[in-house]
Amino acid sequence: MHPDFDLDPDLLYLNHAAIAPWPKRTVKAVADFAAEQGRLGSKRYLTWLAIEQRLRERSARLIGADSAAEIALLKSTSEGLSFIAQGLDWQDGDNIVTIAQEFPSNRIVWETLAERGVALRSLDLSTSTAPEADLLALCDPRTRLIAVSWVQYGRGQRLDIAQLAAACRQRGILLCLDAIQGLGALPFDLATSPVDFIVADGHKWMLGPEGLALFWCRPALRDQLSLTEFGWHMVEDMGDFDRKSWRPAESARRFECGSPNMLGIHALEASLSLLEETGAAQIAGAIEARIARLIELIDQAGFELLSPREPQRRAGIVTFRVPEADQSALYQRLMAQGLMCASRGGGLRFSPHFYTPEHDLQRAIALTKASAQQPK
Ligand SMILES: Cc1ncc(COP(=O)(O)O)c(C=O)c1O
Which domain holds residue 336? Predict the structure, then answer.
């Protein structure tokens, strides 16, 4: 096992697209924080704030943002997407272009705008060979926003965000990126992929806890998002409790209404430190090698690959079907035998990370084959 992880050797962990196990240093950061909290309460609050600042700095570097002040720490991807949907000044007759196979959070938030006269236009990925061009073909002069996942949760299809962002800029369309299935697995840079919004919770490819998400909004757009949550923490003069007048913070802190999730902050900061030390290119290369190997094994086993084959269309997810097997019964059997995976996108979804031992891939496919052949 990789020295930074302490996974139970009886598990085959191919489920980072759901919830990742924490690295050892994250486990330690949480344990240390808990012990300190119990002993000293908030005595070292200034140190906690320094860790919060370090997390914002790491997050800014992860996406190529100009400064830590551009990062808001929210409770989930769904919350960030909701801020965007509820915050923009929609006009009756506007439309949003998206993908039919998006995760529910990235559909429902936009559907709520129907009552304001905003239509949702969805591209069916199963019939598209050029999704970026097909998304743009769905746009018209009333398209205000394209809302897509960088990597689809079901079958792992990756979009070319640089291409899509350039086209959106040219046409004056906002681009909202649900990055939860990409960030931490693949390098990202706002300089080459100038999207308008990025939202991603930390519990998948960033190897952090649930309940703490990164939110980035192009600074020039910040004032265009009307706020939907309010409290002491989101005002410019945050520490001045006696002050009666207030205005939203200039920075992205305006999206953080109340007390920070300090426990989660300690955890995610530790997780991102591992990603930074390892290096984004190294991580992406290791994941790519593992996905390529899985596809080879899936082909050899005679399973049906549902994910894209082209390397530039893949990230950390491989989804496949075992012909003539009851997929959901097979999934249950695999989980019961310690193969952590998911039932998504019409098949079994395997999602290794950079540290996943390569021989686990072979063991996982062998176990799948054996389980599919077991009498029901
Ligand atoms: C693409 C995508 N978006 C959003 C979510 C939900 O994220 P959160 O729980 O942070 O709202 C998921 C979770 O699986 C996802 O895969």
Answer: 12-22+279-372
Look at residue 374 in the predicted model and tell me its pLDDT. Answer: 81
Distance 203 CA to ligand 1 centre (A): 9
Q: In angstroms, what is the span from residue 106 Cα to ligand 1's centroid?
A: 8
Question: What's the pLDDT tens digit per position in 236-274?
Answer: 999 999 999 999 999 999 999 999 999 999 999 999 999
Best residue among 201, 214, 343 to mutate for probing ligand 1, ranked by most atoms within 8 Å of CB: 201
Q: Which atom of ligand 1 is nearest to the CA of 151?
A: 1
Ligand 1 probe mutation, 180, 212, 349, most atoms within 8 A of CB: 180
Domain boundary among 277, 299, 330: 277
d(CA 199, CA 109): 13
Question: What pLDDT does residue 1 have?
Answer: 75
Residue 366: band (very low, low, confident or very high) from pLDDT cuts 50, 70, 90: very high
| Residue from 42, 321, 329, 313 nearest 159 by CA | 313
Q: To the nearest 10°, the Cα dihedral for 131, 312, 147, 80?
A: 170
Asked which of 211, 242, 277 is the last residue of a domain, the reply is 277
Q: Which helix (H) or strand (E) holds 327?
A: helix 327-336
Based on the fold, state whether residues 178 and 59 are members of the same structural domain: yes
CB of 78 within 6 A of ligand 1: the answer is: yes
Spatial distance between the Cα atoms of 97 and 263, rounded to a whole number of angstroms: 37
Instruction: Determine whether the shortest distance from the Cβ of 26 to ligand 1 is under 6 A.
Output: no
Instruction: Read off the pLDDT of each residue in 141-149 and give the average, rounded to a whole number.
Output: 98
Candidate from 73, 84, 103, 268 with most ligand 1 atoms within 8 A of CB, to mutate: 103
pTM (2 decimals)?
0.97
57 shares its domain with 17: no
Residue 373 token pair: 């052949």
pLDDT over threshold 80, residue 376:
no
Count of helix runs (H) and strand runs (E) in the chain: 10, 13
Residue 53 has pLDDT above 80, yes or no: yes
